[in-house]
Amino acid sequence: MRLVLAIFVAVMALTGCGNIATVKSFSTQFESPADGETANLRVITNGMVRGVPNSACIDWYLPGAGVIAAKDGFAHRNNEKLDLPDSKWTAAVSTAAFHATEVRVPAGKPLVLHFMGPGRVTAYAREQCFVSRTFIPEPGHNYELVMIEDGSSCRSRMVDFIDAIQESPVKTETTSFCRKSHSFM
């Protein structure tokens, strides 16, 4: 009986570690750097975009990690402005279905961007998009990230832009969690 109880307590404790990271990842705002080289990032989404600075993998315990843009009810930095020029997607933000913000991010170091779509319910299941990408922002550049769930598909678009006409795609890499215990979200 003691062995069963010990195993149960161990399993619950390990499960709790992942859940603590989950709660932190939803209840903490992304922190822009106070000093050093930076880039500007506009995020447009219909779900939640969280960021992990200075890392090529997802670890919600790292300093600065947190929510960048999301619907109300979660920590977020929605509607912050850095006076970036308009882009092709700027007009879409005026609809209630999208959340947008502009934040400073560390330059010259990896930045993870994790998207969780709003999800949808079908006759048979609940479906939801999850996309995690990483890239290294260049100092002084303006970036725009659009991550949306559109029906049954996830869409992700990252550009380095000067204005609505002058933009170039940014190469991003797929990323995952640094530790398996963080894969609970």
Task: Give descriptors for this structure.
185 residues, alpha+beta, five-stranded mixed beta sheet, five-stranded antiparallel beta sheet, 12 strands, 14% helix, 35% strand
For the record, the count of structural domains works out to 1
Structural class: alpha+beta
Major sheet characteristics: 5 strands, mixed
| Overall helicity | 10-25%
Widest sheet: strand order?
4-1-9-10-11
Number of strands: 12
Beta-strand level of the residues, as a percent range?
A: 35-45%
Q: What are the segments in which pLDDT stays under 50 over at least 5 consecutive residues?
A: 4-20
Question: In words, what does this structure look like?
Answer:
This protein is an alpha+beta fold and 185 residues long. The protein has one domain. Helix content is 14%, strand content 35%. It is built from 1 helix and 12 strands. It has one helix at residues 2-27; strands at 38-45, 48-53, 66-69, 99-106, 111-116, 120-121, 126-127, 130-135, 142-150, 153-161, 167-169, 173-174. The strands form 3 sheets. Strands 4-1-9-10-11 form a 5-stranded mixed β-sheet, with no helix packed on it. Strands 3-2-5-8-12 form a 5-stranded antiparallel β-sheet, covered by helices on one side.
Break the fold down into its secondary structure elements and pairings:
Blueprint: H1 2-27, E1 38-45, E2 48-53, E3 66-69, E4 99-106, E5 111-116, E6 120-121, E7 126-127, E8 130-135, E9 142-150, E10 153-161, E11 167-169, E12 173-174
Parallel strand pairs: 1-9
Antiparallel strand pairs: 1-4, 2-3, 2-5, 5-8, 6-7, 8-12, 9-10, 10-11
